[in-house]
Amino acid sequence: MDKLIYIFIGGGFGSICRYLIGRGLINYSNFPYGTLVANALSCILLGMMVAWVTIKSPDQRWSLLILTGFCGGFSTYSTFTYETLQLLKKEDYLLAGANIFGNLLLCIVSILIGIKLINLIFGR
Predict the structure, then answer these.
(1) Of all helices (H) and strands (E), which one includes residue 33?
(2) Of 14, 17, 54, 62, which has the highest C-beta tally within 10 A?
(3) Neighbours of 35 (CB within 10 A)
């Protein structure tokens, strides 16, 4: 049961951060920057945590709190998909394609950046 508490707390904080980023970036254009930024930041953190867990083998609670909880609540595939669908409904194919490609590429690169950061910090 205590594992669920860590996931719940991390997920709550992640969801709040995603909401605040989304609200802060919503008025800049028709492109869903808030979701893109939240997904990229979540992937950087995820990459950092995966590398940290590999190097340091911390208590499982940290993984549940940050990886499963926070990153799970902070990143959002469902919102990304919905926003892409809305762009397609508006027949804004260029922005829809940019959203798909941007999220995929940026998130892959972000995880690699997170892993590299931790490896640099720990000299690996």
Answers:
(1) helix 33-56
(2) 14
(3) 26
Range of the domain at 94: 2-121
Q: Are 17 and 79 in contact (CB under 8 A)?
A: no
Q: Cα–Cα distances in Å, from 31 out to 20, 54, 90, 110? A: 17, 36, 12, 20
Q: What is the pLDDT along the chain (124 residues), one digit of tens a residue?
A: 799 999 999 999 999 999 999 888 776 778 899 899 999 999 999 999 989 888 887 788 988 999 899 999 999 888 899 999 999 999 999 999 999 999 999 999 999 999 999 999 998 7
Q: What is the dihedral of CA 49, 116, 40, 77, to 10 degrees?
A: -60
* Tally of domains within the chain: 1
Which residues contact residue 6 at a Cβ distance below 8 angstroms, ignoring those fewer than 6 apart?
61, 64, 65, 68, 69
